[in-house]
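OP here, attaching both records as promised.
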Amino acid sequence: MQADLKTTSLNDTHIKLGAKMVPFAGYNMPVQYPMGVMQEHLWTRERAGLFDVSHMGQCFLIPDDGKHETAARALEMLVPADILNMKPHQQRYTQFLNKDGGILDDLMVTRTAYEGHDGWLYLVVNAGCKDADYAHLEKNLPPNVKLKVSEQLALIALQGPKAASVLSKLVPQVSSMPFMTYYATKIADMMVHISRSGYTGEDGFEISVHDKDVVKLWNMLLENPDVKPIGLGARDSLRLEAGLCLYGHDIDETTSPVEAGLVWSMQKRRRIEGGFPGAARIQKELKDGASRVRVGIQPEGRAPAREGTEIVDPATNKVIGKVTSGGFGPSINGPVAMGYVEKDFATNDTALHLMVRGKALPAKIANMPFAPHRYFKPEKFKESA
């Protein structure tokens, strides 16, 4: 291990489980376990995979007056989502934007409902961006909203069709939670914040727990025969099949939420009113269309197209875009990719060429997700249930 790499509290546990460890976002992280990336991916699609995501950043926005409206309006100055109208227990996906409407990071925001702290917002940000995100918040929050970074919290994700049955054996209430809500409780003597969310396209949960308790909780979950530990390799192929963006690859400071196909994460009030960085560009793109858009790409044959592969119009040999994520999709038994193309080429089934090692390989624009999302969305969440 490189001496300058950080470790999560599960580092020794991963090594004992036979994980291959690699540097990722400044951390020593498991890329795969002895089962291998392909089988880890398929296990998660069929049963339940357990991921260490403790490298992610967790923080709170705390309004001096304790009011949700105060924290929400402060955050809305930095993101294009409707935070003000979030309900207690609700979670939303959004993005930090720069003044040009480019994406500084994507993040999850939760309106908490903790007794005495119900005005707090809980944020989860990407590991590679968290220091910059914290600095961005410190610089731009008004004096009456404070940032509290929670370095003592770990985060693990349980993902897959068996995730709810596994976790409900420890916390029966989670079975009725809808996607993008949270529930706070105790497992044994451990305080946990459980959100029904994740980044695999599957049903599942992310569980925030104190560092000192995470090994115990991890091992409790692994006692269930439906659960196996899963590394970063399968996490990447799972999110690619699900058509989900990876920051620094599919989205960055040059891409807007409109180009990235993330308009769904900007609620109508914000699209109309603006009031966030880069609103003029984004509102123009909403009206006129963006000049390039993120699309799904289905290569023919078996050869995957990796990040950076040029996308060419077969009729003119003109470069019309670039692949931002690509690889083999174990669930569909074939290569999948996503990238940006000029808007005139973004229609489904449009023929493309992908320039792989100097050869033009045929491909077409394809619907995303490649593997269907299986999020749990009941009609109503009963908090007491």
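Record two, same layout:
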Amino acid sequence: MPHRPEHARNFPGAAKNIPAEDTFLLPYQTRWVLDRALIKMMVKSRRVGISYSTAYDFVREHAQDNATVDSWFSSRDELTAREFVIYCRGFATALDAGARDLGFQVIDEKGNNAHVLQFSNRTRINSLASNPDVFAGKGGNVGLDEFALRPDPRGVFAIAQPVIDWGGRMAIISTHRGTANFFNKL
């Protein structure tokens, strides 16, 4: 077994690249969270913690007393939508952010559903499976996970982008899907 730092001695995984010091976020995750661009994008590989750090970023923003906008996080499927709100719940608890898990809720008159986490300031993080129509008429922050895997990424972007017009930010995250994909063009 290669040399592991003391903090990782009992880690059962096979990771070979372990930070020398115990850390909450890795440097690239920290840069992602601290990036306050109106629209930010990242090409990622699988299971590198960008959805995880995006959850932390969303909760950090919602935990502020002066937070005013909701967040809409769209994952490629129901399982990853649920996983995202589980991350958010954990961070809300760690930050003592006064959040309440409202469960799986109908969020509009069309019957669209989302996993909803509501904060004491009445803002919400809504995590939903891939359905671009849900963004119509919404406002706030947007997170688009596994963007290049969508059947119509250009259509998703066209519907989701106006959500940030009145004070939100957008995070677009995906693995690479070739040069012809709209994600690559962005």
